[in-house]
Amino acid sequence: MSEERDFKPLNIAVLTVSDSRSLAEDRSGDLLVERLEGVGHHLYERDLLPDDIYQIRAAVSRWIAAPDCDVVITTGGTGLTGRDGTPEAVSVLFDKTIDGFGEMFRALSFQTIGSSTLQSRATAGVANRTYLFVLPGSTGACKDAWDNLIESQLDYRKRPCNLVELMPRLTER
């Protein structure tokens, strides 16, 4: 017997990290907002900040402290240059790391960009019952991550399991 489940819309914040773009030029952030709203989720808030670990950490911390923000997705600042610090800004906030996300993202990315994917420091975790996804800044990376990994895991109807059904248990001790 198959049990039908209703879609559960989530409140998702989107943060673009860039020293060179403005919100008007933020195609990766636009793509993520279009995708999340297109499937029925709600944009909680959107921001664009420079590659500054402390500004990034402050924004993400504010969202994970908000009781009505369910997910934070960042795009940008995941490379290897001196200014790329999004993983360092966000990962210290994790209560738990979702190791499989980075592994799956790089495996998926390998099909498109080959060995260049080893430069990706995409990661994910959970902090204070909020899911965090740290993505590269390219629109292709955001599209691949959302379409092939994040969207289905943020859909309560996805079987055999999904991240949404775990949400009530994230703060168990």
Automatic annotation (TrEMBL):
<dbReference type="InterPro" id="IPR036425">
    <property type="entry name" value="MoaB/Mog-like_dom_sf"/>
</dbReference>
<dbReference type="InterPro" id="IPR013484">
    <property type="entry name" value="MoaB_proteobac"/>
</dbReference>
<dbReference type="InterPro" id="IPR012245">
    <property type="entry name" value="MoaB"/>
</dbReference>
<comment type="similarity">
    <text>Belongs to the MoaB/Mog family.</text>
</comment>
<dbReference type="InterPro" id="IPR001453">
    <property type="entry name" value="MoaB/Mog_dom"/>
</dbReference>
<dbReference type="Pfam" id="PF00994">
    <property type="entry name" value="MoCF_biosynth"/>
</dbReference>
<dbReference type="GO" id="GO:0005829">
    <property type="term" value="C:cytosol"/>
</dbReference>
<keyword id="KW-0501">Molybdenum cofactor biosynthesis</keyword>
<dbReference type="GO" id="GO:0006777">
    <property type="term" value="P:Mo-molybdopterin cofactor biosynthetic process"/>
</dbReference>
<comment type="pathway">
    <text>Cofactor biosynthesis; molybdopterin biosynthesis.</text>
</comment>
<comment type="function">
    <text>May be involved in the biosynthesis of molybdopterin.</text>
</comment>
<feature type="domain" description="MoaB/Mog">
    <location>
        <begin position="13"/>
        <end position="157"/>
    </location>
</feature>
<protein>
    <recommendedName>
        <fullName>Molybdenum cofactor biosynthesis protein B</fullName>
    </recommendedName>
</protein>
<dbReference type="InterPro" id="IPR008284">
    <property type="entry name" value="MoCF_biosynth_CS"/>
</dbReference>
